[in-house]
Amino acid sequence: MLDRRSFLTAVLAVSASVSARPLLAAPAPDAGAFILGLAESAMNTVAIKDLSDAERSNRFRNLFVDTFDLPEISRFVLGRYWRSASEAQRTEFQKLFEDIQVYTWTRRFKEYNGETLELGTVKAEGEDFIVDSQMKRAKLAPINVSWRVRRSGETFHILDIIVEGASMAITFRSDYSAVLSSQGGKMDGLLDVMRKKAEQIKLG
Amino acid sequence: MAEWEQVNDPLEPMNRTIFEFNQAVDKALLKPVAQGYRWAVPQFGRDRVRDFVRNLRAPVVFVNDVLQGEPDRAMQTLMRFAFNTGFGIGGLIDVAEPGGIPYHDEDFGQTFAVWGMGEGPYLVLPILGPSNARDGVGLATEWLSDPFNLYMDNIGQDWAIWTRAGVAGLEKRERLLDTLDEIERSSLDYYSALRSTYRQNRTAEIKNQLDAEGKR
Prior knowledge:
The complex is a heterodimer.
Chain A: H1 4-23, H2 31-46, H3 53-67, H4 70-78, H5 80-84, H6 87-110, E1 116-125, E2 128-137, E3 140-152, E4 155-163, E5 166-167, H7 168-182, H8 187-201
Antiparallel strand pairs in A: 1-2, 2-3, 3-4, 4-5
Chain B: H1 2-5, H2 12-40, H3 43-67, H4 71-86, H5 108-114, E1 122-125, E2 129-132, H6 133-145, H7 147-154, H8 158-175, H9 177-186, H10 190-206, H11 209-213
Antiparallel strand pairs in B: 1-2
Helix pairs in contact in B: 2-8, 3-4, 3-8, 5-6, 7-8
């Protein structure tokens, strides 16, 4: 049962959400700003020097889980195999996929060498936004990086990163389905290979 | 997405064998040499090599700009070649880029694609790596029609053709050091990940998407 105060809060919340669109003149949260903000917090928390591998991994994991839509990415990467997988296999897949990403990215940030992200154009594509950017590197050619993001309430979630025209999600999908077919289409075979990979690239 | 569903690799067993061979050669020779090059030659020197190799390719890029019906881009390539060969000391310094005429690449494989030719089956070429039937024919066309190669062949200086190919290859391998390491490290099956990356990257190149955002 609602007491009076929570009832009031609920009414306020409903009326606020009803009137939010016409009244709030504040600009919609902007996908480009989201990517820049993410890059900045990665620089300030994950890329700083003198962190232990474990600490860096933990920090990146927190950021990663918050900003990437892992369930959606997992579904895409597994494609038709997602439907036939059991709940336990899906959970295990997602955990291993997350581990592999975390270790890969932790190493990238460990080798951080003053790269900066410069924002390009942002265009809408269906319900998603494609945020173009360039990673500027000291003494090396810049890299074109585009981000596919989807609005999720007040913020955004990343669905894909496109590096020099190559989508990571599509590459993973093709990589993982090759492993699946070499394992006779068995999810457990893929999970085994992923477990070995995670172990192999784990830091420290 | 549907177009990425099929892997388009009917020759996979043969491709994988060549891929293993390439990997062995790369680990033993090409990669260490590229790493040594990056370590020993400062950025300034490597930029001069890159600019020189790019300028040598300008006639081929120009022909392909024209064949793709891109007069503006053809003009850019022509101007770049004139400025860089003249003021840039035979192409050693890219003076056109800071002057506002950015570099872009083209090749016969891209031209065939613009003409509507499909990519054909995926191919792994010995030493040269990921390709497909269309791009393989493109490479052969370039090798046989490049004015520099034709000239050197004519005057009996074949060493210059091979030296140029070697330097261009070294420059390319150095540029790809980090990218390829990343793909190998983050993939379960390097062969499949590279195949997918190659096809996607080529599609973006054909649409000229990469130099539209980059180089500015």
